Design the sequence.
């Protein structure tokens, strides 16, 4: 039985970098050989969600949304556009961060089984990616002691699950005790990322936005809001000192190579036979093997 | 005797050539009966199409495959099929504008995944949000792809075109017309269903004609209401308004919600013509072609700057009476 992985992401009509992480993670998984086919699909680029299923030849298709939280896209747009038959959000039986997968067919393609997975952003392994992002930006594989960690989300403007995902990972990382402090901050609600230094006692704070791709929010808004630059076009220092605190700004967590592992884990939990690809990809992308 | 010897040699050469060609044809026939038989249907149909199986018979095809290959275009892509010495097909894929380019002149690629990156920007470095826009960059070649790799590369350049083309060939292309697409939209796109039939015509004329997109538009306002705008001559069909069209429609639905007003502007006839020239030049993507000092072209930069200097008021807009403001 052949199997395909379809990674669905937002993409952009304006910003070519939006789809870059999707392509990169897809390539890592292609190289692992875990799937007969790997295909990217986008809301704003091509192939569209609407037409991607017809481009894969496999009978078993694992669809993994490269989105940070459960909500409008994962619950309404993607299932509607993929034409998943009989989709009901209840099938995920989720509390807002616990969607795993459900198995359906799609009216677009006869004879294929579609395993529709929860978004990468709420998977437990995402906590590891956030920590790894902190390691990457500080260049210190042991980073933690003496450091604060801020996990930044968009906020509840449109979707309460967006904040739930941020709190979920913040709590999980805090419980490990690795960082002196771990806080959830937001762009458009309290506590706001603008005042990052106020929420930490540590002299050094790593700021990791839970966003899939770098773009307007992560490259322009957040750096300017935090005050690590006056004009995003001039860039910013890492670390940059704001009100006496060294801010280590990591950019979108979704660009971290270890994200490929989260995609694989989602598909594996939905029943994909990925062999030992998870441990191989973790090793390759700097993750901890075998945990 | 001499004449007869040379005749014999010529005969022998001709005979040798025909034996070679028979061997090739045999190998090719074997290939069709074995390798191709097990391919997924869509891929096989496309590989048969690129070597013109709908236009010529097996014998003619094999003679051509051996002697220089068979070329066919798919959008702006040029695919050339050749028969390798082992009887397998190998494919050369490049931009049609590079048909005569040698491998030394072009950037050579072997991995179909590279197509995804080649498709991202135009020759000028502009982002291409619409993969089937006729703006594919030039200067690259995949000189030696397998059939599977060719289809993969084509699907990265022009996603889903092979699948949709094949469905159309089979007579079961699922077309989704404008009204159905518009009514399905939610969120910020919810309002696109407010566009009238006439506005949908303008939408298709703006975004969907051959100068803007190489897909052949098969959707209409609805199944019973055809649009007058030309569908295009493309090889592969467009089965539904795409995300670029829906996003554009959203903005036009918003803008069309404004009430029309009357403005009173003072322009010379040449200035009115100039405004028309500027709109035409932008709409046709011609601004880059207008020569620096060609002040006879209404859309020339110096001409536009003159008009701005003369006619814009202190607020940076066209000075003119707005009837509504006077009410």
Sequence:
């Amino acid at each position: 039985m052949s199997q395909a992985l379809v990674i669905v992401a937002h993409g952009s009509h304006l910003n070519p970098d939006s789809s870059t992480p999707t392509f990169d993670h897809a390539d890592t998984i292609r190289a692992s050989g875990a799937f007969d086919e790997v295909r990217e699909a986008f809301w704003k680029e091509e192939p569209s969600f609407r037409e991607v299923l017809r481009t894969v030849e496999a009978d078993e298709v694992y669809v993994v949304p490269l989105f940070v939280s459960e909500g409008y896209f994962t619950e309404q747009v993607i299932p509607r556009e993929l034409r998943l038959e009989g989709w009901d959000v209840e099938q995920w039986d989720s509390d807002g961060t616990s969607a795993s997968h459900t198995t359906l067919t799609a009216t677009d393609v006869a004879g294929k089984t579609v395993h529709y997975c929860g978004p990468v952003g709420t998977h437990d392994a995402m906590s590891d990616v956030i920590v790894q992002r902190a390691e990457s930006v500080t260049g210190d594989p042991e980073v933690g002691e003496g450091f604060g960690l801020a996990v930044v989300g968009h906020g509840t403007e449109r979707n309460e699950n967006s904040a739930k995902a941020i709190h979920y990972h913040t709590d999980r990382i805090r419980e490990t005790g690795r960082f002196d402090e771990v806080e959830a901050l937001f762009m458009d609600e309290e506590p706001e990322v603008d005042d990052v230094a106020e929420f930490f006692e540590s002299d050094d704070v790593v700021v990791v936005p839970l966003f899939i791709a770098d773009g307007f929010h992560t490259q322009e808004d957040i750096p300017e809001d935090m005050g690590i630059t006056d004009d995003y076009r001039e860039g910013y220092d890492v670390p940059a000192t704001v009100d006496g605190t060294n801010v280590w700004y990591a950019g979108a967590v979704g660009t971290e190579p270890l994200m490929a592992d989260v995609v694989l884990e989602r598909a594996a939990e939905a029943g994909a036979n990925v062999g030992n690809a998870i441990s191989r990809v973790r090793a390759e992308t700097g993750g901890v093997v075998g945990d | 005797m001499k004449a007869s010897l040379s005749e014999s040699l010529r005969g022998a050469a001709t005979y040798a050539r025909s034996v070679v060609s028979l061997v090739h044809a045999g190998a090719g026939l074997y290939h069709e009966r074995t390798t191709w038989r097990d391919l997924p249907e869509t891929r096989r149909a496309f590989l048969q199409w690129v070597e013109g199986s709908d236009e010529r018979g097996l014998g003619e095809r094999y003679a051509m495959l051996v002697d220089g290959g068979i070329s066919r275009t798919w959008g702006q892509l040029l695919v050339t099929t050749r028969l390798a010495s082992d009887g397998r097909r190998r494919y050369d894929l490049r931009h049609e504008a590079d048909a005569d380019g040698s491998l030394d002149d072009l950037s050579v690629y072997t991995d179909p995944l590279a197509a995804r990156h080649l498709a991202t920007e135009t020759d000028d470095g502009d982002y291409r949000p619409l993969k089937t826009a006729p703006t594919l960059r030039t200067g690259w070649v995949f000189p030696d792809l397998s059939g599977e790799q060719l289809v993969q590369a084509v699907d990265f350049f022009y996603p889903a075109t092979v699948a949709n083309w094949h469905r159309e060939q089979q007579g079961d292309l699922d077309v989704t017309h404008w009204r159905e697409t518009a009514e399905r939209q939610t969120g910020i796109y919810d309002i696109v269903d407010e566009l009238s039939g006439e506005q949908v015509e303008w939408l298709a004329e703006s975004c969907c004609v051959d100068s803007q997109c190489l897909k052949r538009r098969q959707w209409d306002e609805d199944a019973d209401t055809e649009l007058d705008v030309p569908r295009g001559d493309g090889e592969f069909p467009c089965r539904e308004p795409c995300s670029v069209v829906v996003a554009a429609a959203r903005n036009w639905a918003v803008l069309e919600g404004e009430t029309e007003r009357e403005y009173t502007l003072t322009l010379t006839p040449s200035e009115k013509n100039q405004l028309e020239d500027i709109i035409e030049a932008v709409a046709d993507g011609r601004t880059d072609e207008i020569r620096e000092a060609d002040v006879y072209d209404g859309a020339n930069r110096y001409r536009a700057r003159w008009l701005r200097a003369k006619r814009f008021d202190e607020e940076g807009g066209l000075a003119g009476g707005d009837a509504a403001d006077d009410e």
